[in-house]
Amino acid sequence: MKINKSNLSFKNLSYSNNPQSIVLHHAEASKCSIEDIHKWHLDNGWAGCGYHYLVRKDGSIWRGRPENAVGSHVSGFNQNSLGICAEGSYMKETMPEVQKKTIIDLCKYLCNKYGINKIYGHREVGASNCPGVNYPLEEIRKAVLSDKETKSYIKLDGGGYVNYNGAPGINLIIRDYSADITRVFAWVDSDKGSSWAFDINPPNGNYTKLLKNTSKIINIRNGRDTFSKGTYYKIKVKGYNKDGKIVAENEIMLRIPN
User: Which whole-number Å values give the CA distances from 173 to 97, 189, 254, in the listed order?
Assistant: First the structure.
């Protein structure tokens, strides 16, 4: 599955999204690009494209907001959700098979990544007729959620803390994880060495015992580098099973306060 990157410039995004559900939409436009939607939403006075993904009629996937950024796709339901928009006006049109299959594949990928088991149409959680009466909502939801394969996932949270042991620090919280994960490592940006280590049975003092909602604050990354106030850092996290195989990956953007 290929996800196309978009060169969109956003204004004042909030990087506190912890995805727990997916909300499906249609664009109410028979033809549109991710750039079109971005412009429409900027014209509304928003930070930019309110959806995290756009799936076009040809089956191509385009990235909108980062997954860890709070969306603007359902009033009152943007926090902890991912918005997927389908090109088309499905009050009257019929969805092409290739587009439907791609939405199913994208939903499966995101459900696997975040341990999500809730998929809604916009109209189910907001005052709207979106994603349209002809949108194959139940078919898509059933195809995604009837998959009984064991899903591996890690859910993340955290925040920046000033003056931890004399320097700015970042707190990484492992909110939840699938039962097959026994060890979690985390890296800052492109650092080669991991800065966080969690384990079911910590082998030494450098590891924190892995529990639900376990957390660890660090102010020295990669064993030598410090953090800067007012700066965002991308934290990349990998979960390992008892055989040492990577079974889940996730990332979160965290900011050190000024």
Answer: 40, 17, 11
Q: Tell me the C-alpha distance between 256 and 169, whole Å.
A: 7
Q: Return the domain boundaries, the chain.
A: 3-7+14-145, 154-255
3-state secondary structure of 209: strand
Taking only the tens place, the pLDDT of each residue in 105-149 is 999 999 989 989 899 999 998 889 999 999 999 999 999 987 545
Report the candidate in 80, 81, 85 with the shortest Cα–Cα distance to residue 61: 85
CATH of the domain spanning 3-7+14-145: 3.40.80.10
Helix/strand/coil for 203: coil
Q: CB of 123 within 8 A of CB of 135?
A: no
* CATH class of this structure's domain 154-255: mainly beta
Q: Distance (Å, rounded) from C-alpha 132 to C-alpha 122?
A: 9
Pairwise CA distance, residues 241 & 228, whole Å: 34
pTM: 0.64
Residue 121, phi then psi, degrees to nearest 5: -85, 150
What integer pLDDT is reported at residue 188 of this predicted model?
92
Cα 51 to Cα 73: distance, rounded to the nearest angstrom: 6
